[in-house]
Amino acid sequence: MDSNFKWLLFAILISLTFSGFVLHHGVLAESVNPDEAKQLRDEVRGMFYHAFDGYMNNAFPLDELRPLSCQGEDTLGGYALTLIDSLDTLALLGDRERFISSVEWIGKNLQFNINKTVSVFETTIRVLGGLLSAHLIASDYATGMRIPSYNNELLVLAENLARRMLPAFDTPTGIPFGSVNLMYGVDKHESKITSTAGGGTLSLEFGVLSRLTNDPVFEQVAKNAVRGLWARRSNLDLVGAHINVFTGEWTQKDAGIGTSIDSFYEYLLKAYILFGDEEYLYIFQEAYRSAMQYLHKDPWYVEVNMDSAAIVWPVFNSLQAFWPGLQVLAGDVDPAIRTHTAFFSVWKRYGFTPEGFNLATLSVQYGQKSYPLRPELIESTYWLYKATRDPRYLDAGRDFVASLQYGAKCPCGYCHITDVELHKQEDHMESFFLAETVKYLWLLFDLAVDSDNLVDNGPYKYIFSTEGHLLPITPQISLAREHCSYFGGYCPSNSTKLEQEVLGEDSSNDDHSNDYPYHESFPVTGLIKGLCPGLTHAQKYGFSYVLPEKTDREDVNQPKPVVTSSSIVLISDQTVEKRPQEEEGFTSQSEPIMTISGGSSNDQTGQELTLLESETDDQRSYSS
Ligand code: DMJ
């Protein structure tokens, strides 16, 4: 069969699925109104406590709950994983009492000096991230959840844990081993193969830790890992799924936005927003453009060979569903809406999203029938509701609640669904159900009610880690002064002044040897933190803006850009002193302050549609 014809067939099948969704929607119940939104928010709160109390009463201090048999199991390191993952949800729900008692218990009882080999990725996103976000809440009056007796116990634990993971980064590529023993380091028999998500999703947690401890090592190793991966991208700017951390060879060359890669993309953009580090932005821009060019088959995404862009997997996998949420953060809302609609049509069809749904056969992918309580589609629903306030996202939220309540609720919590066609329950509840799934559902409805919560109406802007943990954009974490001056990044070195000089600080002491050495961390791309007043935005970023809005003034250096559908939105920092740009007509406070054209395209030129039907779950590994 001619490849163009195959592609046409594929496109027709996809549009049939899509139109099926639209028809289905015609018979939906009335849209969620404010009263119902409030009821749903309260119901979600009840869901949280059903699962949290179920865990505390039946499983704690083991890692996770077996919600059917009401028992516990150690699944990661044997350190009360679900409690750590739940801490900031407790704070978000305003449960002072349980937040305090949980933080105190962890501070007194947890220790990582244990002979356990753990996943670097899972330990970072669940445990390190959980500890750091709870620390930042418990130690800060502004959150309304400060614990008077708290004395940085969680930060000390976080640092201790991260140091135990550092040996994993000792590889020729800088990409860490997938697992590390918390007592003895990396075992000599440890596998050298790791996933792209596993090696490239550490920058938020490790970066925050560096900025809280003033020890740059954590931020540096995480960034080196990203560089190690990105340096091995293909000529198409795509990354594969698995790589050998010693040789740097890709052992699995399927490029995609889901399984094994997903949060690599997520952390590029979020690390930029949180830390103001433009190197991440540059990588994100290139990676995103390429993903939209080769992986996006509007509204779906496929997996392709990273070198040839030939389609190898025309499959929706449930981890892809975070992508529309990321696109909202990137300011690329239109494709996000279309993709969310398509992904949600899969949920509507089965009541849950299976791990894999084959876009060519329009059926559940063989061996990928389960729904392990994943949050991704709900997360994107929250972001799209936040961006559009379209009530259809509340309606989707109501469907999520109904499915979980009728299909997944079990005696002591919520059960995994082993088969979305049979709705069979399995005796397991991943900790991310409380860290993410319930959190995003609650936030969705709270947004429709009064948004009086830490995230939407709190003292800071928050970035969600990939595990849903709240990381505030505070001056200490985002190095707000660098944020102030990062508009000046990417300057020729002779026109650069370090921020201390620019901001009028005492620069008489030229000994910068004890400074936090961020300037060191840019040699690869030549990015420099500093201010070079003579450059336009386009020169600074290497991008052209679409139609900068005309102002009365002759200020060509800081044009106020026009939002395009393909853009990066920078979120302003509310906490810093007034910055020069505000005086020059920038939107301030909670409004996005500027956009950068990002470029997206949809290449549908005749690509090979190769179905690898024999590959099953057993042959592919998943990032959590
Ligand atoms: C979580 O651990 C994180 O969201 C991760 O990025 C992907 N897998 C699970 C949720 O599905």
Automatic annotation (TrEMBL):
Localization, UniProt: Endoplasmic reticulum
Active site (record annotation): E122 (proton donor), D262, E355 (proton donor), E376
Gene Ontology biological process terms from the UniProt entry: endoplasmic reticulum mannose trimming
Cofactor(s) in the UniProt record: Ca(2+)
MF GO annotations: calcium ion binding; mannosyl-oligosaccharide 1,2-alpha-mannosidase activity
Compositional bias segments (type: Polar residues): 586-608
Residues binding Ca(2+), per UniProt: T466
Keyword Endoplasmic reticulum appears in the UniProt entry: yes
Superkingdom, taxonomy of origin: Eukaryota
Similarity-based family: Belongs to the glycosyl hydrolase 47 family.
Identification of the protein by name: Seven-hairpin glycosidase
Organism this protein belongs to: Arabidopsis thaliana x Arabidopsis arenosa
